[in-house]
């Protein structure tokens, strides 16, 4: 019994043993990592959507019935290919009427030209008569001059008594007759000049009639050209090479001009997909950092087994959408096999040209509350833990930028399965 009592007195106190064991358990060995300022390539990860390089909704320019369809959904068509024809018989009749009107106007031109020729002939005849009258006038003037000279000579001889007065009277009568002849011829010249003036006026009038007929013919021809342009719209053609992605018309359908009320859906939707546009809405915080030429890495859920697609920023809109506060960025991608379809969604990682010095931590060192807020376990100089809520920035998948909550040089607990509390002691293992 005494031995047993002695042994019992030498055994340790169970309560003190439990305290020592609990203390030993509370000091958890951990590894730490330091918050390190690092120059990083900034990236922005955003949703992306595929769009046709060009997409056109083809509508009718004229109203009529669909006579024939030459393309359907999924067909590849070249630029200028006929897709459908619209029957417009009333326009064909209008064209026949205008053609007949042009023929009538051409006949009027020919009649006006004939009037010009006739008036020109009259001018030539009048001019010939005028020339003849002027010639007679010259002859009459010469005869009058001769008669006047003879009269003067005879009068002188009579005054001298060499001739009788009877001879002077005869010469006077002859002179007066020649004077009368001259006056008659002068009247003929004036009449011929008037005839020439009238004929020339007739020529000018006939030319005016011809010019008016030509102008009317030209106007009618232009009306025919305008109608031909409208008739050309009866054939729906592809404005560029692409694929018919929608068709909303059947043979025999009545289609209306696009400007009319009730014109409804387009006849066809044509998309160019041998090259596509990938559109990426970039948030306001990164919009000013994106520039044409920045590298873009694209992934699509439809091609999980394939390597990401690398492209470059082709253009940026340069303004923010007021409703989303994002700027649209486009990247053009060759799509010769048609694998990328308009409407596909994916993710785009844009590698911004700007590099920045950031406080980075491994992603594994950051914890999250149930509410989604991030925090880290900061280890002080005395190896005491303090919980520090943080604000995160960029995330490249391995490291995460810490915007606030910790400072460069501070050490935090690396990946660990245990949860820690403020003031808890830890044992920092050598790295």
TrEMBL record:
Pfam families on file: Beta-barrel_RND_2, BSH_RND, RND-MFP_C
Entry's localization field: Cell envelope
Stretches assigned to coiled coil: 88-150, 189-216
UniProt keyword Phosphoprotein, yes or no: no
UniProt keyword terms in alphabetical order: Coiled coil, Transport
SUPFAM superfamilies listed in its UniProt record: HlyD-like secretion proteins (SSF111369)
All copies of domain Multidrug resistance protein MdtA-like barrel-sandwich hybrid, residue ranges: 56-257
Stated family: Belongs to the membrane fusion protein (MFP) (TC 8.A.1) family.
InterPro entries per UniProt: Beta-barrel_RND_2, MdtA-like_BSH, MdtA-like_C, RND_pump_MFP
GO cellular component terms attached to this protein's record: efflux pump complex
NCBIfam families xref list: RND_mfp
Transmembrane segments: none
Gene3D superfamilies: 2.40.30.170, 2.40.420.20, 2.40.50.100
UniProt domain Multidrug resistance protein MdtA-like C-terminal permuted SH3: residue ranges: 361-413
Domain CusB-like beta-barrel residues, every copy: 278-351
Matches recorded under PANTHER family: MULTIDRUG RESISTANCE PROTEIN MDTA, RAGD PROTEIN
Name of the protein in question: Efflux transporter, RND family, MFP subunit
GO terms of molecular function: efflux transmembrane transporter activity
């Amino acid at each position: 019994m005494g031995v047993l009592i002695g042994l019992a007195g030498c055994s340790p106190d169970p309560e003190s043993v439990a305290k020592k064991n609990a203390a030993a358990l509370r000091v958890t060995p951990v590894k730490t990592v330091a918050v390190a300022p690092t120059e990083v390539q900034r990236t922005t990860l955003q949703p992306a959507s595929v769009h046709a390089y060009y997409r056109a909704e083809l509508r009718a320019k004229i109203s009529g019935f669909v006579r024939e369809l030459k393309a359907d959904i999924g067909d590849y068509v070249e630029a200028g290919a006929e897709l459908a024809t619209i029957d417009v018989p009333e326009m064909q009749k209008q064209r026949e009427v205008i053609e007949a009107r042009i023929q009538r106007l051409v006949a009027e031109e020919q009649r006006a030209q004939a009037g010009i020729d006739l008036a020109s002939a009259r001018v030539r005849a009048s001019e010939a008569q005028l020339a003849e009258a002027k010639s007679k006038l010259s002859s009459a003037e010469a005869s009058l001059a001769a008669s006047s000279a003879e009269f003067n000579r005879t009068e002188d001889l009579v005054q001298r008594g060499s001739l009788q007065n009877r001879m002077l009277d005869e010469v006077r009568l002859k002179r007066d007759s020649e004077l009368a002849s001259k006056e008659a011829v002068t009247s003929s010249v004036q009449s011929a000049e008037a005839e020439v003036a009238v004929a020339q006026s007739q020529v000018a009038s006939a030319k005016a009639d011809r010019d008016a007929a030509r102008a009317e013919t030209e106007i009618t021809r232009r009306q025919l050209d305008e109608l031909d342009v409208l008739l050309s719209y009866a054939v729906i053609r592809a404005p560029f090479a692409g694929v018919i992605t929608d068709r909303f018309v059947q043979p025999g359908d009545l289609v209306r001009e696009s400007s009319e009320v009730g014109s409804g859906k387009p006849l066809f939707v044509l998309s160019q997909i041998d090259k596509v546009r990938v559109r990426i809405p970039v948030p306001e915080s990164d919009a000013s950092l994106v520039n044409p030429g920045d590298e873009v890495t694209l992934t699509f859920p439809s091609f999980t087994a394939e390597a990401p697609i690398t492209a470059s920023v082709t253009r940026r809109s340069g303004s923010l959408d007021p409703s989303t506060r994002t700027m649209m960025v486009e990247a053009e991608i060759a799509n010769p096999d048609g694998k990328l379809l308009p409407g596909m969604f994916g993710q785009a990682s844009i590698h911004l040209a700007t590099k920045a010095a950031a406080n980075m931590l491994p992603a594994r060192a950051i914890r999250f509350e149930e509410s989604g807020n991030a925090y880290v376990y900061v280890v002080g100089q005395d190896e005491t833990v303090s919980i520090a809520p943080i604000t995160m920035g960029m995330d490249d998948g391995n490291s995460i930028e810490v915007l606030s909550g910790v400072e460069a040089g501070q050490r935090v607990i690396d990946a660990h399965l245990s949860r820690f509390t403020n003031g808890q002691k830890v044992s920092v293992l050598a790295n």
